[in-house]
Amino acid sequence: MPEQIVTLENVKKIYKTGDTTITALDSTTISFETNKLTLIMGPSGSGKTTLLSILGFVIYPTEGEVIYKGKKVSELKESDLATLRLHEIGFIFQQFNLIEPLNALENVMQPLILQGIKKNEATKRAKIALEEVGLVTRMYTLPKRLSGGQKQRVAIARALVTSPSMILCDEPTASLDAKSAESIMKELKTLASKNKVVVIVTHDLRLRQYADKVIYVEEGKVSDAIRNEEDYK
Ligand SMILES: Nc1ncnc2c1ncn2[C@@H]1O[C@H](COP(=O)(O)OP(=O)(O)OP(=O)(O)O)[C@@H](O)[C@H]1O
Ligand SMILES: [Mg+2]
Asked: Phi/psi zone of residue 35: left (φ > 0), alpha (ψ -120 to 50 degrees), beta?
Protein backbone atom coordinates (compact mmCIF):
# COMPACT_ATOMS: atom_id res chain seq x y z
CA MET A 1 0.00 0.00 0.00
CA PRO A 2 1.38 3.43 -0.90
CA GLU A 3 2.11 5.50 2.17
CA GLN A 4 2.78 9.22 2.36
CA ILE A 5 6.27 9.64 3.79
CA VAL A 6 7.10 13.26 3.17
CA THR A 7 4.92 16.31 2.68
CA LEU A 8 5.86 19.88 1.86
CA GLU A 9 3.34 22.42 3.14
CA ASN A 10 3.49 25.87 1.55
CA VAL A 11 7.23 25.51 1.20
CA LYS A 12 9.12 28.40 -0.35
CA LYS A 13 12.83 28.89 -0.93
CA ILE A 14 14.18 32.37 -1.46
CA TYR A 15 17.83 33.22 -2.08
CA LYS A 16 19.09 36.71 -1.39
CA THR A 17 22.42 37.69 -2.89
CA GLY A 18 23.24 41.38 -2.64
CA ASP A 19 20.26 43.33 -3.97
CA THR A 20 18.76 40.42 -5.89
CA THR A 21 16.14 38.08 -4.52
CA ILE A 22 15.53 34.79 -6.30
CA THR A 23 12.47 32.69 -5.59
CA ALA A 24 14.05 29.32 -6.33
CA LEU A 25 10.90 27.53 -5.19
CA ASP A 26 7.51 29.22 -4.99
CA SER A 27 4.90 28.21 -2.42
CA THR A 28 4.60 24.44 -2.88
CA THR A 29 2.35 21.87 -1.25
CA ILE A 30 3.01 18.31 -2.33
CA SER A 31 3.36 14.78 -0.91
CA PHE A 32 5.58 11.90 -1.94
CA GLU A 33 4.54 8.30 -1.37
CA THR A 34 6.16 4.90 -1.19
CA ASN A 35 5.85 2.47 -4.09
CA LYS A 36 6.05 5.33 -6.57
CA LEU A 37 8.80 6.45 -8.86
CA THR A 38 8.33 10.19 -9.30
CA LEU A 39 10.14 12.23 -11.95
CA ILE A 40 10.76 15.94 -11.58
CA MET A 41 11.20 17.66 -14.93
CA GLY A 42 11.62 21.25 -16.08
CA PRO A 43 14.05 23.69 -17.65
CA SER A 44 17.49 24.53 -16.27
CA GLY A 45 17.29 26.90 -13.31
CA SER A 46 13.60 26.17 -12.67
CA GLY A 47 14.09 24.90 -9.10
CA LYS A 48 14.38 21.11 -9.47
CA THR A 49 17.56 20.67 -7.40
CA THR A 50 16.15 23.12 -4.84
CA LEU A 51 13.00 20.98 -4.46
CA LEU A 52 15.04 17.76 -4.19
CA SER A 53 17.46 19.30 -1.68
CA ILE A 54 14.57 20.39 0.55
CA LEU A 55 13.16 16.86 0.38
CA GLY A 56 16.53 15.46 1.49
CA PHE A 57 17.03 18.02 4.31
CA VAL A 58 20.13 19.29 2.53
CA ILE A 59 18.72 22.83 2.58
CA TYR A 60 15.88 24.30 4.60
CA PRO A 61 12.86 26.21 3.34
CA THR A 62 12.59 29.96 3.85
CA GLU A 63 8.89 29.50 4.56
CA GLY A 64 6.55 26.57 5.12
CA GLU A 65 6.97 23.20 6.68
CA VAL A 66 8.44 19.82 5.69
CA ILE A 67 6.78 16.89 7.41
CA TYR A 68 8.69 13.60 7.39
CA LYS A 69 6.94 10.49 8.73
CA GLY A 70 4.53 12.69 10.68
CA LYS A 71 7.18 14.94 12.22
CA LYS A 72 7.82 18.58 11.49
CA VAL A 73 11.41 18.78 10.31
CA SER A 74 11.77 22.34 11.66
CA GLU A 75 11.21 20.98 15.16
CA LEU A 76 13.92 18.33 14.95
CA LYS A 77 17.34 18.85 16.51
CA GLU A 78 20.35 19.03 14.20
CA SER A 79 21.55 15.66 15.55
CA ASP A 80 18.18 14.04 14.72
CA LEU A 81 18.38 15.48 11.22
CA ALA A 82 21.89 14.12 10.78
CA THR A 83 20.62 10.67 11.81
CA LEU A 84 17.70 10.94 9.39
CA ARG A 85 20.00 11.92 6.53
CA LEU A 86 22.35 9.04 7.29
CA HIS A 87 19.79 6.28 7.80
CA GLU A 88 16.74 7.24 5.80
CA ILE A 89 17.95 9.08 2.74
CA GLY A 90 20.05 8.09 -0.23
CA PHE A 91 21.01 11.23 -2.15
CA ILE A 92 22.62 11.07 -5.57
CA PHE A 93 23.92 14.58 -6.21
CA GLN A 94 24.07 16.24 -9.60
CA GLN A 95 27.85 16.66 -9.14
CA PHE A 96 28.28 13.17 -7.59
CA ASN A 97 30.10 14.59 -4.48
CA LEU A 98 32.54 11.69 -4.22
CA ILE A 99 35.36 12.04 -1.70
CA GLU A 100 38.53 12.46 -3.75
CA PRO A 101 41.17 10.77 -1.56
CA LEU A 102 38.95 7.69 -1.13
CA ASN A 103 38.71 4.95 -3.74
CA ALA A 104 35.36 3.75 -5.12
CA LEU A 105 34.96 1.04 -2.48
CA GLU A 106 35.81 3.40 0.40
CA ASN A 107 33.38 5.99 -0.97
CA VAL A 108 30.57 3.43 -0.96
CA MET A 109 31.57 2.18 2.52
CA GLN A 110 31.56 5.67 3.99
CA PRO A 111 27.86 5.98 5.00
CA LEU A 112 28.03 2.52 6.59
CA ILE A 113 31.14 3.45 8.57
CA LEU A 114 29.36 6.63 9.72
CA GLN A 115 26.48 4.43 10.86
CA GLY A 116 28.96 2.54 13.05
CA ILE A 117 28.91 -0.65 11.01
CA LYS A 118 32.11 -2.75 11.37
CA LYS A 119 34.66 -2.51 8.59
CA ASN A 120 34.34 -6.16 7.47
CA GLU A 121 30.58 -5.93 7.16
CA ALA A 122 30.78 -2.49 5.49
CA THR A 123 33.29 -3.84 2.95
CA LYS A 124 31.04 -6.79 2.16
CA ARG A 125 27.97 -4.63 1.66
CA ALA A 126 29.82 -2.00 -0.36
CA LYS A 127 31.17 -4.68 -2.71
CA ILE A 128 27.66 -6.00 -3.30
CA ALA A 129 26.42 -2.46 -4.05
CA LEU A 130 29.29 -1.93 -6.52
CA GLU A 131 28.49 -5.26 -8.17
CA GLU A 132 24.91 -4.10 -8.68
CA VAL A 133 26.11 -1.08 -10.63
CA GLY A 134 28.66 -3.18 -12.56
CA LEU A 135 31.73 -1.53 -11.11
CA VAL A 136 33.35 -4.12 -8.90
CA THR A 137 36.43 -4.33 -11.15
CA ARG A 138 37.19 -0.63 -10.50
CA MET A 139 36.60 -0.68 -6.77
CA TYR A 140 40.15 0.29 -5.80
CA THR A 141 40.24 3.20 -8.25
CA LEU A 142 40.22 6.85 -7.11
CA PRO A 143 37.39 9.06 -8.42
CA LYS A 144 39.79 11.17 -10.55
CA ARG A 145 40.67 8.05 -12.56
CA LEU A 146 37.04 7.14 -13.24
CA SER A 147 34.94 8.33 -16.17
CA GLY A 148 31.86 10.51 -15.56
CA GLY A 149 29.53 7.54 -15.93
CA GLN A 150 31.62 5.40 -13.58
CA LYS A 151 31.64 8.18 -10.95
CA GLN A 152 27.89 8.41 -11.32
CA ARG A 153 27.59 4.66 -10.69
CA VAL A 154 29.77 4.91 -7.55
CA ALA A 155 27.48 7.70 -6.32
CA ILE A 156 24.45 5.49 -6.99
CA ALA A 157 26.01 2.55 -5.12
CA ARG A 158 26.83 4.85 -2.18
CA ALA A 159 23.23 6.12 -2.06
CA LEU A 160 21.73 2.61 -2.13
CA VAL A 161 24.15 0.78 0.17
CA THR A 162 22.32 1.84 3.36
CA SER A 163 18.89 0.68 2.07
CA PRO A 164 17.34 4.12 2.60
CA SER A 165 13.55 4.72 2.76
CA MET A 166 13.80 7.65 0.40
CA ILE A 167 16.04 7.75 -2.66
CA LEU A 168 16.60 11.17 -4.19
CA CYS A 169 18.49 11.37 -7.47
CA ASP A 170 19.59 14.49 -9.32
CA GLU A 171 20.14 13.58 -12.98
CA PRO A 172 21.24 9.99 -12.20
CA THR A 173 21.57 9.01 -15.83
CA ALA A 174 23.09 12.21 -17.27
CA SER A 175 26.52 10.62 -17.79
CA LEU A 176 25.31 7.12 -18.61
CA ASP A 177 24.90 5.31 -21.92
CA ALA A 178 21.50 3.85 -22.78
CA LYS A 179 22.30 0.38 -21.42
CA SER A 180 23.64 1.58 -18.05
CA ALA A 181 20.76 4.07 -17.74
CA GLU A 182 18.27 1.27 -18.33
CA SER A 183 19.80 -1.00 -15.70
CA ILE A 184 19.94 1.82 -13.10
CA MET A 185 16.32 2.79 -13.81
CA LYS A 186 15.18 -0.84 -13.50
CA GLU A 187 16.95 -1.06 -10.16
CA LEU A 188 15.36 2.20 -8.95
CA LYS A 189 11.95 0.98 -10.14
CA THR A 190 12.39 -2.29 -8.22
CA LEU A 191 13.39 -0.32 -5.12
CA ALA A 192 10.28 1.86 -5.44
CA SER A 193 8.13 -1.27 -5.52
CA LYS A 194 9.71 -2.36 -2.22
CA ASN A 195 8.02 0.38 -0.20
CA LYS A 196 10.49 3.15 -0.95
CA VAL A 197 10.03 6.71 -2.10
CA VAL A 198 12.06 7.30 -5.27
CA VAL A 199 12.30 10.82 -6.67
CA ILE A 200 14.37 11.55 -9.76
CA VAL A 201 15.22 14.91 -11.29
CA THR A 202 15.89 14.57 -14.99
CA HIS A 203 15.93 16.15 -18.41
CA ASP A 204 16.05 12.68 -19.92
CA LEU A 205 12.82 11.94 -21.79
CA ARG A 206 13.74 8.24 -21.95
CA LEU A 207 13.07 7.98 -18.22
CA ARG A 208 9.37 8.77 -18.47
CA GLN A 209 8.56 5.15 -19.28
CA TYR A 210 9.62 4.23 -15.72
CA ALA A 211 7.63 6.99 -13.99
CA ASP A 212 4.50 6.46 -11.92
CA LYS A 213 4.15 10.22 -11.62
CA VAL A 214 5.72 13.24 -13.32
CA ILE A 215 6.02 16.62 -11.63
CA TYR A 216 6.86 19.66 -13.69
CA VAL A 217 8.76 22.67 -12.30
CA GLU A 218 8.84 26.00 -14.08
CA GLU A 219 10.24 29.23 -12.63
CA GLY A 220 9.92 27.82 -9.14
CA LYS A 221 6.32 26.74 -9.62
CA VAL A 222 5.51 23.06 -9.17
CA SER A 223 2.65 21.30 -10.90
CA ASP A 224 1.71 17.72 -11.56
CA ALA A 225 -0.49 18.51 -14.54
CA ILE A 226 -0.05 16.28 -17.56
CA ARG A 227 2.05 18.10 -20.13
CA ASN A 228 2.61 17.83 -23.83
CA GLU A 229 5.76 16.26 -25.20
CA GLU A 230 7.07 19.74 -26.13
CA ASP A 231 6.93 20.96 -22.54
CA TYR A 232 9.54 18.48 -21.37
CA LYS A 233 12.23 19.82 -23.66
N1 LIG B 1 22.83 28.74 -3.26
C2 LIG B 1 22.18 29.54 -4.11
N3 LIG B 1 22.28 30.88 -4.00
C4 LIG B 1 21.60 31.70 -4.85
N5 LIG B 1 20.79 31.28 -5.83
C6 LIG B 1 20.66 29.94 -5.98
C7 LIG B 1 21.35 29.01 -5.14
N8 LIG B 1 21.02 27.76 -5.54
C9 LIG B 1 20.18 27.90 -6.58
N10 LIG B 1 19.95 29.20 -6.84
C11 LIG B 1 19.07 29.73 -7.89
O12 LIG B 1 17.77 29.16 -7.74
C13 LIG B 1 17.20 28.83 -9.00
C14 LIG B 1 16.85 27.36 -9.05
O15 LIG B 1 18.08 26.60 -9.04
P16 LIG B 1 18.11 25.01 -9.12
O17 LIG B 1 19.50 24.60 -8.87
O18 LIG B 1 17.06 24.47 -8.20
O19 LIG B 1 17.69 24.76 -10.64
P20 LIG B 1 17.58 23.38 -11.46
O21 LIG B 1 16.16 23.30 -11.94
O22 LIG B 1 18.09 22.26 -10.64
O23 LIG B 1 18.53 23.66 -12.71
P24 LIG B 1 19.47 22.63 -13.56
O25 LIG B 1 18.54 21.83 -14.45
O26 LIG B 1 20.34 23.56 -14.35
O27 LIG B 1 20.23 21.78 -12.60
C28 LIG B 1 18.21 29.29 -10.05
O29 LIG B 1 17.83 30.55 -10.52
C30 LIG B 1 19.52 29.36 -9.28
O31 LIG B 1 20.37 30.31 -9.83
MG1 LIG C 1 19.79 21.03 -10.83
From this structure: left
